[in-house]
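Researcher: Watch the backbone:
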Amino acid sequence: MNGEDGRVGALRRPDAAARRPYLNVRWLGRMEFARALELQEELVAKKREDPSLEDQLLLLEHEPVYTIGRTPDRSSLLGSAHLPHPVFSINRGGQATYHGPGQLMGYPIIDLRRCGQDLHKYLRWLEQLLIDLLSAFEDRVEPRVY
């Protein structure tokens, strides 16, 4: 199920009448953070234009990079001049986070209306999805979901 387009598989709707996948899971390999962010923004724009497009889960690894959220407190960077990798300010909360090779990143592009626009319900669903996915590999990885 791993085609040349990076498509790993798709989860189907529980409704047997619905035939198209509603979550397209794609493995993209190792990718620079800026390119991954650009791809996410492109997919979000397309999804806003056409809500019937399937939801996406992008799975990838980044080249070494630090990200930091909208917080005005930059103390977790300890002065970015000494850091060996680029720093990206992004549209999320939280302190600085390192991302790099060997760390699986998952970026969902999801229409929250399918979760009743309930962020907590969505986060519980997403967490369980990742736990279920990682359990298939438990003999090869130590599953941790953050």
